[in-house]
TrEMBL record:
Domain of life, per lineage: Eukaryota
Entries under InterPro entries matching the protein: NAD(P)-bd_dom_sf, NmrA-like, NmrA/Isoflavone_reductase-like
GO MF, one example: oxidoreductase activity
Name this polypeptide is given: NAD(P)-binding protein
Keywords: NADP, Oxidoreductase
Pfam family of the protein (one): NmrA
């Protein structure tokens, strides 16, 4: 592993706590910390879960996780309950992968972390860098909550707890089945130019990045940016269509939607309450080039690719035999997660 000497000397001394450990992203992040290549760097990997008796929780326990029953989003869970849990396990690092569209619940977690003496906190971001958004009067509420939370966490943690936001663009394993990608139907629809590249990062690579960022935060915190941008792969809709066609032999038709018109429609939908998810906003970000993380922090976590090989779009499409997100679309992945 390419780590500073101080991190190698600290091997096995740190406790990492993962909130939302059995969720969509949290499960992969938890499994990565528990991987035999990384677990020796932590004295304990603690997974917070609503249900320690679930199959996924038991799976993590079998891999060496310490389970703690905590439902952060529940009103029944007080701030002091979380403080008590974090203190009991002597948490050094807190990673949140909770899908909480509730700034106060996230703030409760951050306050508890500061009170418990947590030294590094990774809030639940793991998408586009919403600070670059250009939605002046129709920003999606999910990002408004996240901005408020990160600002608040940095205020209360100043001088006590390092707060690091990780932005990875799109999730590689989930994206080519949503936001305009219809592989079975042979049609991809993009907002704006078909050749506009955007970042796609695999869940495992996000987990690996969090492992190295955690260790760096403990040994060399000044070397870790407050905002870390990752790009496991950069590809456009056109690139993805070509890769699918090469692997499957299927011709993918690409349809372009006018960016300006789509942005106006998204503004109307958001202001009228029709834009329930940020999917429309994300498609605009891609079209405007705001998901193009060509300038990124990959070298911070994986200098010259020495720690691991980033999974590319081509790698993933080849792995899926030309049918990206097949397991997600036909329900296999949901069944495996139950």
């Amino acid at each position: 592993m390419s780590l500073p000497m101080s991190a190698r000397l600290g091997r096995g001394q740190y406790v990492v706590v993962i909130a939302g450990a059995t969720g969509q992203l949290g499960m992969t992040v938890s499994e990565t910390f528990l991987d035999k290549a990384y677990k020796p760097f932590f004295s304990s990997v603690v997974c917070l879960t609503r249900n320690p008796d679930s199959d996924k929780s038991k799976s993590l326990a079998e891999k060496g996780a310490t389970l703690r029953r905590v439902d952060v989003a529940s009103h029944q869970t007080s701030e002091e309950d979380i403080v008590e849990t974090l203190k009991a396990v002597q948490a050094d690092i807190l990673v949140s992968t909770l899908g909480i569209n509730d700034a106060e619940a996230a703030n409760k977690l951050a306050r508890a972390a500061v009170k418990a003496g947590v030294k590094a906190y990774f809030p639940s971001e793991f998408g586009g860098d919403h600070w670059k958004n250009d939605f002046p009067d129709f920003e999606h509420e999910e990002w408004l909550h996240k901005k408020k939370h990160v600002t608040y966490a940095k205020q209360i943690g100043k001088g006590k707890m390092k707060v690091v936001s990780v932005y990875n663009g799109m999730l590689l394993e989930d994206t080519i089945g949503v936001v305009g990608f219809d592989t079975p139907g042979g049609t991809y629809t993009c907002v704006g130019p078909r050749n506009s590249p955007f970042a796609l990062t695999s869940k495992t690579d996000i987990g690996r990045s969090l492992v190295f960022l955690s260790l760096l935060c403990m040994s060399s915190p000044d070397e870790v940016p407050d905002a870390v941008r990752l790009a496991g792969s950069l590809a456009s809709v056109e690139d993805i269509a070509n890769a699918v066609g090469k692997e499957s032999g299927k011709k993918i038709e690409i349809k372009e939607i006018d960016l300006k018109e789509f942005k106006q429609k998204t503004r109307r939908d958001t202001q009228s309450g029709k834009a329930e998810s940020p999917g429309q906003h994300i498609r605009i970000m891609i079209g405007e080039g705001k998901m193009n993380f060509e300038q990124n922090d990959n070298e911070v976590v994986n200098p010259r690719g020495k720690n691991w090989k980033w999974k590319t779009v081509e790698d993933y499409i080849r792995e899926m035999k030309g049918e990206p997100c097949r397991d997600l679309l036909n329900g296999e992945r949901q069944h495996r997660a139950s």
